[in-house]
Write a structure and sequence with these properties.
It is a single chain. By secondary structure, the chain is an alpha/beta fold. It contains eight helices and 13 strands. It folds into two domains: about 140 residues, Quinone Oxidoreductase, Chain A, domain 1 (Alpha-Beta Complex), CATH 3.90.180; about 130 residues, Rossmann fold (3-Layer(aba) Sandwich), CATH 3.40.50. Strand 7, helix 4 and strand 8 form a beta-alpha-beta unit. The longest helix has 16 residues. It is elongated, with a radius of gyration of 20 Å. The relative contact order is 0.17.
Length: about 300
């Protein structure tokens, strides 16, 4: 396609496979066509009239969809240049922006005790970002041993299977509300009902529960009574304002360029355009070693 005024034609180099698209892929969508793929990075192939920020050959990332393709049209205002030395797999702009936004919205003070429930791409990515805030302890929790080992390699202090957490990790009874049980900050990054249940139990009184997990496939239930007597702050770690996403994307790219985070290290599986169905199937099944899939046209 030819880019119009204010548009850029991007030759897609890589596009992340996002769990937010798992249910639409598996269950179908109400309207067609539905263009999947919203985590791209690529190279400018052509620019529309009046566009001066980008030129052919520039490496870019940003907010545009339908990126399971060789080429995509993008709004130039929603693109950012990829810094020199940053690999495309480290510069998947949309999830990078979501993670930085989550870090900015999740209040972590120096020496806080932090727990992360769910160690997929988003949980492990936020672990890297929260380390920059100076917590005294990060406990990483997941059912998969291999992701717990990845968390340790990325700087977690301890890891646990959910079934093996020490009893003092949870605060679930009012008689203990003035005790030292629980964590100052708990991030729920599983997107599941059991993960949300556990995260609510792990927050200390007057602590912070940050919900990063993308919850789909039906409504969720929470123990509002327990949340109430614990007087916790509940944070929706997601934002939708494009200006916020673009600013967080800029910050994330700078952190990648400085070597302060490494999201590319979480990419474990790569697929061609003719293997998108297999990519989603693996995202759902989690084969050994799986953390993050990308499609490479």
């Amino acid at each position: 396609p030819e880019p119009g005024p204010g548009e850029v034609l991007v030759r897609v180099g890589v596009c992340g496979v996002c769990a937010s698209e798992l249910h639409p892929w598996a269950d179908g969508v109400a309207s067609y066509p539905h263009r999947f793929g919203h985590e791209p990075a690529g190279v400018v192939a052509a620019v529309g009239a009046g566009e001066a920020r980008f030129r052919e050959g520039d490496r870019v990332t940003g907010l545009f969809k339908g990126a399971y393709a060789d080429h995509c049209l993008a709004d130039a205002a929603l693109l950012l240049p990829i810094p020199a030395g940053v690999a495309a797999e480290n510069a998947l702009g949309e999830p990078l922006a979501c993670l930085v936004n989550a870090q900015r919205r999740t209040r972590v003070e120096l020496a806080d005790r932090v727990a992360i429930v769910g160690l997929g791409y988003m949980g492990l990515g936020l672990l890297q970002l929260l380390k920059l805030r100076g917590p005294s302890r990060i406990v990483a929790i997941d059912v998969r041993e291999e992701t717990r080992q990845r968390a340790l390699a990325l700087g977690a202090d301890e890891t646990f299977h959910p079934a093996n957490l020490p009893p003092e990790s949870e605060l679930t009874e009012f008689r203990h509300w003035q005790s030292d049980r629980g964590f100052d900050v708990v991030v729920e990054a599983s997107g599941t009902q059991p993960g949300l249940d556990l995260a609510g139990k792990l927050v200390r009184a007057h602590g912070v529960l940050s919900i990063l997990g993308y919850h789909q496939g039906g409504p969720r239930q929470v123990d509002v009574g327990m949340w109430n007597w614990k007087a916790i702050d509940v944070v929706n770690a997601h934002v939708r304002r494009r200006a916020d996403l673009m600013e967080s994307m800029r910050i994330g790219l700078e952190l990648e360029a400085k070597g302060l985070i490494d999201l590319g290290s979480l990419v474990t599986h790569r697929y061609g355009l003719d293997e998108v169905d297999r990519a989603y199937a693996d995202l759902r099944a989690k084969p050994p070693g799986f953390v993050k899939a990308v499609v490479c046209p």
